[in-house]
Amino acid sequence: MRSFPKHVLKEFPAEFAIFKKLNTPGKIQDYLDSIGINFEKEGETSRSPLMVLRRKEAHCIEGAMLAAAALWYHGESPLLLDLKVAPGKGDGDHVVTLFKQNGYWGAISKTNHAVLRYRDPIYRTIRELVLSYFHEYFLDNGVKTLRTYSRPFSLLPFGDKWLTSTENLWEINNALDKSPHFEIAEKGIMAKLRLSHPVEREAGKIVEWKKE
Fold first, then answer.
1. pLDDT tens digit string along 117-143?
2. pTM for this model (two decimals)
3. Where are the alpha helices (DSSP H) in the chain?
4. 104 three-state secondary structure
5. Which residues are bridge partners to 149 per DSSP?
6. Model confidence at 1, in pLDDT bands (50, 70, 90)?
7. How far is residue 20's CA from residue 18's CA, in Å, rounded to a whole number?
8. How far apart are CA 162 and CA 69, in angstroms?
């Protein structure tokens, strides 16, 4: 695996100096939790890690790419995981960063909600990890929407420009969206899912950052 590019650290020392401190998945998650949510007030974005570090805000895939970059800095593979919802339900996909410790998978996640967050490395397979999100992924009416998930998606084929680009990274977004995805269960099973309980729905409305 290629090492994290040294020229990035030389060109942007002020921004990327934080990576030295973010030497565990937990610390990376703590940092993501400390920055705001990108509400995309001026239109949709897909900001690079550099732009996230400068603006101190991110939405899920922006946070995921920042976390992947921090893991890469410390010698780990920069891997994303796409969680895709049923079309036409009014819900949005979610992207997390994968990491592995002692043979078990975990995930780093940037979200504004009480659920769909960090996962400790206790999952033997990617599918096990994905299923931990299934019952938390529902609409305000209780309909569960998570349907498919990608295989681990490496950012290494994209070189290193994605780390510091001042342009939106739509190429990565589109490639992740079009990458192979796996069904969680057969359609017949998904058609008979029980609605989430009203208490769960109410808890799901809790947000960390309020839109001004």
1. 999 999 999 999 999 999 999 999 999
2. 0.96
3. 6-11, 13-16, 25-34, 49-55, 60-73, 126-134, 170-178, 187-190, 198-204
4. strand
5. 83, 182
6. confident
7. 5
8. 9
Strand partners, 113: 207
Structure token digits, residue 199: 């208490």
Question: Other CB atoms closer than 10 Å to residue 9's CB: what's the count?
Answer: 15
Phi, psi of 15 (to 5 degrees): -75, -45
CA 160, 125, 61, 101 dihedral sign is: negative
Q: Which two tokens stand for residue 188?
A: 């017949």
- Rounded to whole angstroms, the Cα distance separating 212 from 194 reads 35
How buried is 75 (Cβ within 10 angstroms: 0-12 exposed, 13-18 middle, 19+ buried)?
exposed
Residue 108 has pLDDT above 90, yes or no: yes
Query: What are the b/e assignments for 177-211, b being 16+ CB within 10 Å?
Result: eeeebeebeeeeeeeeeeebeeeeeeebeeeeeee
Alpha helices by DSSP H, listed for 76-197, are: 126-134, 170-178, 187-190
β pairing state of 104-108 and 119-123: antiparallel
Region label for 95, one of left (φ > 0), alpha (ψ between -120 and 50) or beta (otherwise): beta
